[in-house]
Amino acid sequence: MTREDIVTTLTGIFRDIFFDDDLVLRDDMTADDVEDWTSLTHINLILAVEEAFEIKIRSNEIEKLTDVRALVDLIAKKVA
């Protein structure tokens, strides 16, 4: 799976979770950049990512997810 494939899938997940069909992901995007990104939506986001990519993200890995780039990198590592 390429980085582009991961970003495409993630974009769909983000749009579903945040009910925003116009949301465009950026590598440096954080929770501060997305309206309504709360701790609850963060949990829903992680669960949706785990399901879509058929991976498990551990709590210590979640703590290191500071931006979209870090999430894409983690997914790429786990699906390799």
TrEMBL record:
<dbReference type="InterPro" id="IPR009081">
    <property type="entry name" value="PP-bd_ACP"/>
</dbReference>
<dbReference type="InterPro" id="IPR036736">
    <property type="entry name" value="ACP-like_sf"/>
</dbReference>
<feature type="domain" description="Carrier">
    <location>
        <begin position="1"/>
        <end position="79"/>
    </location>
</feature>
<protein>
    <recommendedName>
        <fullName>Carrier domain-containing protein</fullName>
    </recommendedName>
</protein>
